[in-house]
Amino acid sequence: MDCDDLLGGLIITGVTPRGWRIPPGATFTLPPRELAHIDWEPPETTGTWVFVTENPSVLAAASTEALARDNLVRPRVICTAGTPSQRECEAIGALADTGWNIAVRADFDQAGLAHMRALLAAAPSAVAWRMGAADYLAAVPEGTDVLHLQGSDAPWDDHLVPVMRKHSVPVYEEDLLPALLADITAGAPGSCVP
Questions:
Q1: DSSP string, the chain
Q2: Residues 145-193: pLDDT tens digits?
Q3: Backbone phi, then psi, for 102, in 5-degree steps?
Q4: Where in the numbering of this chain does the DUF2399 domain appear (predicted)?
Q5: What burial class does residue 96 get, using C-beta atoms within 10 Å of its C-beta: 0-12 exposed, 13-18 middle, 19+ buried?
Q6: Which of 84, 124, 158, 194 would you label with 93, given CA atoms 20 to 30 Å apart?
Q7: 62 with 77: CB under 8 angstroms?
Q8: Please, what sign has the CA dihedral across residues 106, 111, 116, 119?
Q9: What's the confidence (pLDDT) of residue 161?
Q10: Please, are residues 136 and 160 in contact by the beta-carbon 8 Å criterion?
Q11: Considering the domain boundaries, does residue 166 fall inside one?
Q12: For helices 86-97 and 110-122, what crossing angle results, to 10°?
């Protein structure tokens, strides 16, 4: 028996498939089987943002912070937990088609750039969220990790890859966590590159 369509998927808080009843603030995983025919609930108001991130730590921190503050506004975050599959990208595209504004981001490394290209291709109306050269420079750590960028590009910011090659250090989403959480809490992305 093949169970591959039950493994992986998207980790989600704050948005739901149409007709689903999820407790406010709950986090759940939609496996590929569900993503194959996803029909998202539309936003209650025009201009509402959903934040798509690569690392579960961003979603966990946003959920924890919202629960600690007992905010009435719950974060709307989707995590791909690594490089998204084509089906996951298509589900994000379907979310945009339903009327949500989508802000996507990933780590500043080779895989993260590929992740971004795939998501932006699947959801052309999405914006790159804190994924510009200035965002990279603001967070670049002193480090010993060496960044290898072979054949990479960042169509959303022509300056990003040259800056990343110059510094040759990866920057992970966790390095930007305070800014990301501030954006999620505010309900709108900062430092977006269309």
A1: ---GGGS--EEEES--BTT----TT-EEEE-HHHHTT--BPPPSSTT-EEEEES-HHHHHHHHHHHHHHT-SSPP-EEE-SSSPPHHHHHHHHHHHHTT-EEEE---BSHHHHHHHHHHHHH-TT-EEES-SHHHHHHHPPP-S-----SS---TT-TTHHHHHHHH---B-GGGGHHHHHHHHHHTS-SSEE-
A2: 778 788 788 999 999 999 998 888 899 999 999 999 999 999 999 876 6
A3: -120, 130
A4: 29-184
A5: buried
A6: 158
A7: yes
A8: negative
A9: 92
A10: yes
A11: no
A12: 40
Q: What pTM, to 2 d.p., does this model score?
A: 0.92
pLDDT for res 147:
80
Structural domain span for residue 106? 45-130+171-188
Q: How far apart are CA 8 and CA 117, in angstroms?
A: 20
| CATH at residue 179 | 3.40.1360.10
Tokens (6 digits) for 75:
């974060």
Does 34 reside within a domain? no
pLDDT tens-digit profile of 81-93? 998 999 999 999 9
Q: What is the pLDDT of residues 41-70, one digit of tens each?
A: 999 999 999 999 999 999 999 988 877 776
pLDDT of residue 141: 80
Residue 96 domain flag: yes
> Domain count of the chain?
1
- How far is 182 from 33, CA to CA, in rounded Å? 33
